[in-house]
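task queued by scheduler; priority normal; single chain, no ligands, no partner chains; default sampling; output format set to structure tokens
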Amino acid sequence: MTDAITLELIQTRLTSVVREMRGIMIRTAISPMIHEGHDFSCSVLSPVGDLVAASEVEQPTHISALPWCARSVVARYGDDIGPGDLFLHNDPYSGGSHLNDVALYYPVFQGGTPIALLGVMAHWQDVGGMVPGSLSGTATEIFQEGVRIPGLRIARRGTEIAEVTDLLFANVRQSDDRRGDLRAMVGACRIAERRLLGLLERFGVQTVKEGTAALLDRTEARMRAAISSVPDGDYDYETYLDNTGESAEPLLLKLRLSIRGDSLHADFTGSAPQVAGPTNLGPAASTTAVFTMSKSLLDPKGPINAGAMRPITVTAPLGTVVNARPPAACGAIGEVRRALESLVVGTLGKAMPDRLVGDLKGASNITAIGGPHPGRTRDFLFAEFPAGGTGAFLGGDGNNTMRNFAEGDISSIQPIESIELTCPLRVESTSLRQNSGGGGVWRGGLGLKREIRLLGPGGRLSVLSDKNVIPPYGVRGGCSSAPNRFMVRRDGVEIEPSNLPGKVTGFQLRPGDTVIEETAGGGGYGDPLERDPGAVARDVAYGYISAAAARSEFGVVLRQGQADAVATRKNRAGIAKTRVRKSVRAASGFDFDGSRRLIAVAPATAKQLQARKGALIEIPSGAGPSLRAWLRIDKRMPVGSCAIGRTAMDILGLAAGDKIELRVIKTRVRARH
């Protein structure tokens, strides 16, 4: 048995190997997406592909994908893996994320015995496909998203297989940069190999093997103990993606979390069938979402390795958006997986009320502009994933324009200097987006607003984003935040660059056009009418919210920058009286219209809400996250009542006759372009 001190030394050394790999990648990669954006992850895996070590800042998207892809490589090549071999993989259907996330595997041997697999997964800025940057908001099949690599050897026993790499790089934009990114990945693994061999030399192969097994067992025990602290039971929630990327139909995502003793099972049965758009996932991503959020909420300080994953099982039905069959497009992993994370947080938060948080901005918001570069021989390519607000929590407001705990060390936005040095673009402004955080006792963090002007002769804009229509939810009566929004200003007029908000494919930009990025804030926590008036006054002074929002949303009346206590009490009482509250009952004969959950109200109630048939309605919950439904107007419904499906009542913990509040979520009307 390995003693405790040796175990800690092995754990620390393994983690330091990963951290050194990260430093090498940041200093040697070519793509700004890697050296500025930090969209990559490093890992030490066992020879069969189990995750042995990762640092605390790895990209969670990659944490399940790296072992899953490694296992597919091992299954394909088996005993024909030797020293000096290199393998690439990016196939979503055998465990990858999306095609831009390319994984390199580097086997480590000692004396002919396999010791480890070193893995690096990095977002290559372009892997071919229909648009610069490869990610399209309206792709209908994976062939449009770039080169698909289903676990492929690119070097044998130290010799590059040039025919393979030549074929690969002939099908991507900026091929020299991609070759440079690959060299950086290989270089990081070579240094890590030296460190691992040094570890083996110090402690011995057998001690390291036994120690590694003990570390995984210890991490498993920590995670099981954390799960055991949650009450046994089945917990349900549902949420939506805005649209498919091919049609305006929202996509339903459902989850049942079952906790039994020290085990957690996540079942996504009932989620939407796979679609002809980029909003699909391969099999690894749903596991990633469940593991990332469960680990963050239950055991945030424990090591990240395969041991922590053992108590968690996932059911992701094949043929759905959470586990699609080929050739479904899978580019929107940053949108679908983060919607699943919202689903997990909302569901698990019902079981752990003290850790319930408002929804995150919840999308990768990948924005790419490509086109000719004046005076240069090759086109430019700009890509970034602008950050947004995080959700409010018990005792505190969300953070402004920050990466969140589900995104690792990814940067908030690309630095202005890097953009303007390499692209014919000018960043006109970058600022916090006023009024974008969800209101509450504790307010959601703010999103950002950025304006980027095209200086060159032309370009094409592509955007892949979600929560542009259905915004991040609030919890315990907190309000939704502002949704994401991506526009183009042309000749002083703001226009929508696509028919579906957040899904843009190669929109033709003209010289002088300005791309406007506005990201979502985080969801609020608690009733905004109960927020400390002094905190509201400070928010106005800092420019986080407007004086008008202070009065209308938080009920706070300001006089010379200070809250007027008497006027505020009166205003808040008046706002409370105008809220629409109805007695709820189970719907009879309807639940959904297609994928849209329905809530039925009387015509007089619709008038009260100032809403038409089909309006998006939010139902706040005093104990968990809000639920969304679409308005159905029924003349037979009593004025004092409303009706929703039995499953919705169960999710909200309601009984017939309970009072619920109804809020209208204003959705955007598309502008012509």
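post-processing summary
- Confidence is low (pLDDT under 50) at residues 669-673.
- The domain at 579-665 is CATH 2.40.40.20 (Barwin-like endoglucanases).
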